[in-house]
Design goal:
Strand content: 15-25%
Number of domains: 2
Number of helices: 3
Number of strands: 8
Radius of gyration: 22 Å
Strand order of the largest sheet: 5-6-1-8
Structural class: alpha+beta
Distance between the termini: 26 Å
Length: about 190
């Protein structure tokens, strides 16, 4: 079970006064219920776009710094096995596919990117065209000033940091079907 302090923060985020339920187990049940019934989380993730004007060159790099640390991806004509290596494709679009796979932890490890490369916990690669790839934070409340740099001759990020995005929060339910009923035994039951 999580600590009371965390439960109090989570309860407040979904519009519940945590002092009305003294039993931690009941409070956790209520918070989980309200979080599940809450409307979608608001906010927009910070993003950047990586744009290509040609192919990548061997040993060029791109760096994305998030809350879990900085990841430096190295582009290789042949993978050596070191972590965070991305295979250079025959065309820019193929390299963008490999970047997307490396960031998301999809594709074929050991072929598209090095076997030791793990999914990036802070970012996800999304919409892709033949010459662009959108990279977004996985958290609307973090990484808004994430540094995005590269030493690539034919690729560039939108800017030196990700766009600001907008802070996210739970949209608190406003109807009884949205989460107002309490759990049997807590002082909010029947509200």
């Amino acid at each position: 079970m999580v600590q009371r302090n965390e439960l109090a923060i989570r309860a407040s985020a979904v519009g519940l006064d945590p002092s009305t339920i003294s039993n931690d187990s009941k409070l956790e049940q209520k918070v989980l219920y309200l979080e599940k019934r809450a409307s979608a989380i608001t906010g927009t993730a910070p993003t950047t776009t990586l744009t290509s004007t040609g192919v990548a060159l061997n040993n060029e790099t791109m760096t994305i710094a998030g809350s879990s640390g900085t990841r430096v991806y190295t582009f290789k004509t042949t993978l050596t096995g070191a972590a965070d290596e991305i295979l250079i494709g025959a065309a820019a679009t193929n390299t963008l596919d490999n970047i997307k796979s490396a960031i998301n932890g999809t594709g074929t490890p050991g072929t598209d990117y090095s076997q030791l490369t793990v999914r990036n916990k802070d970012f996800t690669a999304g919409a892709k065209t033949a010459t662009t790839l959108v990279i977004a934070s996985t958290d609307t409340n973090a990484n808004s000033s994430a540094a995005t740099t590269e030493t690539l001759t034919n690729f560039s990020f939108t800017g030196g940091t990700m766009s600001a995005g907008t802070l996210g929060s739970f949209a608190v339910p406003t109807t009884t079907t949205g989460g107002a009923p309490g759990i049997s035994g807590d002082s909010n039951a029947g509200l």
